[in-house]
Structure formats: C-alpha cells, structure tokens
DNA sequence: CTATATTCGGATGACTTAATCCTTTTAATG
DNA sequence: CATTAAAAGGATTAAGTCATCCGAATATAG
C-alpha cells in the first residue's frame, strides 16, 4: 500500500497538540496538593513554556486544574485523579464533538448527515467515548507507575558568566 | 462539561481535508467505466476544484483511480468498488499510520512509547483499522443507496449576458 | 506599602495545511 | 498537422494552528 504526499506531515495523534500537551501534564502531575509552576512543568516535560501556560489556564477555567497567583503560586489538580476522566479533559480541549460529527466531514448534525459510513462510525465513536469516560487520570497513572515530575522548586536558568 | 477555545475551530473529522474529499468523491463515483472530469466532480460535490484535482492525481498514482488525458479524458475507478477498501484510501491519503502511533503524541515507535493509554488505545485502533479493512466502497454505496453524481458531460458555466 | 513572583489576557509572529494559478504534457478530433 | 480539451506538476497565496511576547492583575513577603 503506497501513499503519496500532498503537503502535510504524518499526524502524530488524532488529537490536537494542546490536547496532547494537556494529557501529558495531567498524567504526571502529583496529587499531593502542592502548586507547580507552569515554567517547571514545561521544562520537565520538554514542552513549549508559554504555550503550555495557556493550556493550563484553560484547564483551570474548566475546573480540572486550580491556579494560584503570586509567589508560591502555580497549578495543581482541582480534584482527585480518580475523579477526572480522560473524556472530560479531551472535551475541555477539543470541544463537545472530539471526533467530529461525521467521518467524511458532512455537516448537518446527527440527523442531517446521510453519509454511508455513519452507522458504523457511530458504533466505533461510542466505544471510544465509553473508554474515555471510564478511564481516569488515576487509571493512567497506575497502569504504568508513572514517575511524577520532579520536586525542585525552581532552577534559575543557570546563566553562565 | 464546559470547554474553552484556544484558537482552532471544531474539527469536522479525525481525518485531514484531502482524505475526506477523496472519500466523498470515491463513494459517489459511478463504476460504469466512463471517465469523469475533475471539474465536474468538484462542481457536483461542491468541493474546491483545483484542490480536488490534486487529490485525484494522488489517487491515480496509488492505483485507486485511473486517469486519462486529453479530450474525453478524466478519472474513473481503477478497480471494482468491492475491491477498494476504506483502509486503502485512508492510508493512501494519510500515510501508513492514519491514527498516529500514540494518543499522547509520544514518538519512538511501537516499543519506545511507555505511555499509559497505549494498551487501550491499541485495542481501539485495531478495531478502527479492522473496520476500515473490511469495508469496501461498494459497502458504502449500497448501505444508503447513494445517488451517483450526474451524467452531464459538462456545463460551460453559463455566463449570463 | 513596596518589591517580587506568579498567573492572566491580548497582540503578534512562525509554521503547517488548504487552496489557487499558470505552464507543460498528453491525447483526441477535424 | 493544427486545434482543442483534458490531466500533471510546480510556484504561489490564503487560512488555520502552534507558539511567543509583553503588559496587566494578583498575591506573598519583608
């Protein structure tokens, strides 16, 4: 099975970049109640700093994270990891229809689309959604015993001479 | 479940635009052996003409379509609709890993990624792939008795006055 | 109350994907 | 053989997503 390029790079995930970043952070965020700096989170996971900051803001507005300004501020989980589902995170980042309403891109809502792939796609979509709804951050953490990100308060970017 | 915007519009499908356009055309292309003009295909489905032309070229190079130049030329299916699978089309347009190798975007191939969602995602991914591999263009046509695109040779864009 | 450290929010820039335009090549027809 | 009609292919533009920058707001500490 050959494939021909049209101009876009191979997609790394069915989710958009902000969603992937969000999940990467949430899965490794410790649940000990301490606030973590956006800057340090980004550094530890090697993600673009200012961009991740914006994503953390969104997660705060959606009630998934809790933010605190000023010195000793930062971000932490707003609820226990077992109370935050994968689905909730994805919906927060991608919107209410994370997989689009139609595989072929037809619009017109649930009813308006007469596309032939629709019935089969709905089945698969429901399986995806169900999986995401029953999987929590805690599940993800435990399943592979993820190491939480480091505890160091801050490294002042060690400017040499 | 609230969701916050970050700058991108709600995705209409998990596939890229060219893939959706390709499927839309293929599903409605008649299998009577006649060549159809890129221009007319685009007009009938209300898709951007020159862009669709490029996509048709790719499908030709992959052996899904057959093209013929000059007058009375155009595009037609290279094989019977029951011999062209959904998977083949998607792979042709999206590359060998249509869903990305990892939900969180980790790279490192099948083994290098220790992401906690991996096992469950692999299961779902296999279901998606299996569905696409066993679904042919013919299945899609029959399931909803799609009307093939019109037979008119060409309309010269009827410039009034 | 001042200084400092952080999130917040808007404006801007860079890069990727979508789409167009124009020239060349190929084939059919008179 | 000239004309015409179509796909093929490259260069260019437009739109969308990703990412950065900077000023404002807010909270802590001295």
From TrEMBL, chains A, B:
Pfam family, one: Rrf2
GO molecular function annotation: DNA-binding transcription factor activity
Family annotation (Gene3D superfamilies): Winged helix-like DNA-binding domain superfamily/Winged helix DNA-binding domain
Superkingdom of the source species: Bacteria
InterPro entries given in the database record: TR_Rrf2-type_CS (IPR030489), Tscrpt_reg_Rrf2 (IPR000944), WH-like_DNA-bd_sf (IPR036388), WH_DNA-bd_sf (IPR036390)
UniProt-listed PANTHER family: TRANSCRIPTIONAL REGULATOR, WINGED HELIX-TURN-HELIX TRANSCRIPTIONAL REGULATOR, RRF2 FAMILY
The protein, known as: Rrf2 family transcriptional regulator
Native source organism of the sequence: Candidatus Geothrix skivensis
Lineage: Bacteria, Pseudomonadati, Acidobacteriota, Holophagae, Holophagales
């Amino acid at each position: 099975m050959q494939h021909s390029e049209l101009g876009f790079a191979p997609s790394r995930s069915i989710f958009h970049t902000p969603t992937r970043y969000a999940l990467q952070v949430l899965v490794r965020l410790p649940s000990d109640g301490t606030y973590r700096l956006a800057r340090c989170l980004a550094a530890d996971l090697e993600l673009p700093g200012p961009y991740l900051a914006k994503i953390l803001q969104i997660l705060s507005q959606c009630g998934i994270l809790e933010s605190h300004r000023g010195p000793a501020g930062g971000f932490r989980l707003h609820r226990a990891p077992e109370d935050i589902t994968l689905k909730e995170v994805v919906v927060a980042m991608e919107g209410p229809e994370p997989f689009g309403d139609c595989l072929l891109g037809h619009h017109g809502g649930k009813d308006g689309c007469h596309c032939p792939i629709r019935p089969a796609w709905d089945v698969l979509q429901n399986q995806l959604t169900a999986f995401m709804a029953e999987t929590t951050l805690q599940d993800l953490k435990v399943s592979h015993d993820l190491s939480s990100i480091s505890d160091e308060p801050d490294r002042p970017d060690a400017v040499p001479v």
